[in-house]
Structure to design on (150 residues):
């Protein structure tokens, strides 16, 4: 089996989440769907925390979050210790958020980008490795600060 991807959305991102799940499954990824499971209005933060906590507890997993803009999901996911969630709206950012920042959660907005664009961003994000070197120090600095803030 392939890498495990933990995915979640609110009601606005539900259809895009289902599309991304299908694409991931066709590419041999293991999916953990944390919800939501329909288009009834829900609080995006609930799903950001569910995905964030799973990824933070299991660093070998990566997460994907989708809401209307991706903004709320990224803000809430980044409240979970150990999470480096990045909102992505273009291919270059999808690549750099992994290469430079070792993002472990990808956030996207279903009201901002198309499903097919989201899949292209997801593929780039999944295929890009962290560059290490000076970027490792930068990521470590972020994570150290997280441990000391109150």
């Amino acid at each position: 089996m392939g890498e495990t991807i933990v995915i979640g959305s609110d009601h606005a991102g539900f259809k895009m989440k289902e599309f991304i799940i299908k694409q991931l499954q066709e590419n041999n990824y293991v999916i953990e769907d944390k919800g939501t499971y329909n288009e009834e209005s829900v609080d995006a933060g609930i799903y950001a925390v569910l995905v964030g906590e799973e990824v933070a507890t299991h660093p070998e997993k990566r997460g994907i979050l989708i809401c209307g803009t991706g903004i709320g999901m990224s803000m809430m996911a980044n409240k979970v210790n150990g999470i480096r969630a990045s909102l992505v709206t273009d291919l270059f950012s999808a690549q750099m958020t992994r290469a430079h920042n070792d993002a472990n959660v990808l956030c996207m907005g279903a009201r901002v980008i198309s499903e097919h664009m989201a899949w292209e961003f997801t593929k780039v994000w999944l295929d890009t490795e962290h560059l290490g070197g000076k970027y490792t120090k930068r990521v470590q600095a972020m994570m150290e600060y997280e441990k000391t803030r109150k």
In short: The chain has a mean pLDDT of 95.
